[in-house]
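Propose amino acids for all 312 sites.
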C-alpha cells in the first residue's frame, strides 16, 4: 500500500499531524518506535496547554490525541525506522518489521533534553528533577531551586524560575557562564539568583521525591551533600545542558542546523514532499502547543503537495 502520508514519531506533533491528515481524508500512518506521546508522557500535570483548565496529566492528554487521530481514520504501528529513501516521488521508509511507502512523509521524531547522567536522575525525573522551567516552574512556588548549566537557555530559565522559587542557584561546571553577556548582566543583578562555580551534581537522592543531591567541586574533588530544607521536604533541580534531537536517520538526506532539521514556516524541508514538525525542528520554543501547531501545518501542506503533484 502507498499511503498519502507517513508520520514518523507519535508525540504531540505526530499525533496532531495524524489528526489533520486523516480528517482531510488522506490515508495516514503514524509510526512510533517506543510509547506514543514523547516527552509529555512523563509530565504529571499539564497546566499551560490552552484549554487544559483541569490540568490533565501528560498521559491523559496523549490518550485524547490518539483517540482523536484514530477516530478520523489514522492508523498507528509500532516499529523502529532504520532507513529512509526520499530520492523518488514515492518515499520509502524501512522499519525493523516492515517497509512502508507514501506520497509524503512528516518527520516528527522529537528531541530529548540532554541528561546530567548521574545516579538517581532517571528515577526522580518528574519528582523534583525537571528539564522544562515553563512546564514545571509553578510547582516550585516558594521552594529552593537549582539550575544545572551555564548557557543562554540555562541562565534565562533560571531567571524565569525566580518568579516562583524563593531562591535559584545556578550550578555550572566552569568558573564563568557561557551565556551572552547581556543575559549574564541581567542574571547578576537578580537578587534571587546565586551561583556555584566549577561544580557538578553527581548523584540525586530521594524516596519517591527529590530530597538531596551530591555536589562535587571539579577542581578540588571535594564532595558534599545538599539536603532540602526540613520545612520544605524537597527542592527542584532543573537541567539545561542541551537537547538531543532524533535526527541521525536523516544525516545527508535533509538539511540540518546543529543537528535539528531546517524547515520554512510551512514545515517544508529541503526535499519536496518531506516535512518536519515539533521539537526535531530548528526553532525557538519547544512546547506541546508549538508541536501541535507544527503538526497541523505540516499535514495541511502535505495535502496541498499531493494535490499539486499527484493525479486522482
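Proposal:
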Amino acid at each position: 500500500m502507498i499511503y498519502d502520508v507517513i508520520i514518523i514519531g507519535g508525540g504531540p506533533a505526530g499525533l496532531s499531524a495524524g489528526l489533520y491528515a486523516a480528517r482531510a481524508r488522506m490515508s495516514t500512518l503514524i509510526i512510533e518506535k517506543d510509547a506514543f506521546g514523547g516527552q509529555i508522557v512523563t509530565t504529571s500535570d499539564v497546566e499551560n496547554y490552552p484549554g487544559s483548565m483541569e490540568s490533565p496529566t501528560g498521559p491523559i492528554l496523549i490518550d485524547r490525541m490518539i483517540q482523536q487521530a484514530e477516530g478520523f481514520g489514522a492508523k498507528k504501528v509500532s516499529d523502529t525506522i532504520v532507513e529512509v529513501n526520499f530520492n523518488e516521488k514515492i518515499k520509502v521508509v524501512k522499519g525493523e518489521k516492515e517497509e512502508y511507502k507514501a506520497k509524503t512523509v512528516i518527520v516528527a521524531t522529537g528531541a530529548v533534553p540532554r541528561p546530567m547522567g548521574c545516579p538517581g536522575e532517571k528515577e526522580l525525573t518528574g519528582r523534583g528533577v525537571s528539564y522544562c522551567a515553563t512546564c514545571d516552574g509553578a510547582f516550585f512556588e516558594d521552594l529552593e531551586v537549582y539550575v544545572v548549566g551555564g548557557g543562554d537557555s540555562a541562565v534565562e530559565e533560571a531567571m524565569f524560575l525566580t518568579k516562583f522559587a524563593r531562591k535559584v542557584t545556578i550550578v555550572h561546571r566552569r568558573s564563568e557562564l557561557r551565556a551572552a553577556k547581556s543575559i549574564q548582566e541581567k542574571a547578576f543583578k537578580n537578587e534571587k539568583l546565586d551561583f556555584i562555580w566549577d561544580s557538578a551534581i553527581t548523584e540525586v537522592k530521594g524516596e519517591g521525591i527529590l530530597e538531596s543531591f551530591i555536589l562535587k567541586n571539579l577542581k578540588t574533588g571535594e564532595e558534599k551533600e545538599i539536603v532540602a530544607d526540613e520545612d520544605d521536604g524537597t527542592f527542584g533541580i532543573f537541567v539545561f545542558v542541551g537537547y538531543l534531537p532524533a535526527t541521525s536517520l536523516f544525516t545527508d538526506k535533509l538539511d540540518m542546523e546543529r543537528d535539528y532539521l531546517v524547515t520554512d514556516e510551512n514545515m517544508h524541508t529541503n526535499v519536496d514532499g518531506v516535512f518536519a514538525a515539533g521539537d526535531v525542528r530548528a526553532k525557538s520554543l519547544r512546547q506541546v502547543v508549538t508541536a501541535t501547531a507544527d503538526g497541523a501545518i505540516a499535514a495541511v501542506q502535505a495535502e496541498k503537495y499531493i494535490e499539486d503533484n499527484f493525479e486522482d
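DSSP finds seven helices and 19 strands in the chain. Residues 13 and 302 are 14 Å apart (CA to CA).
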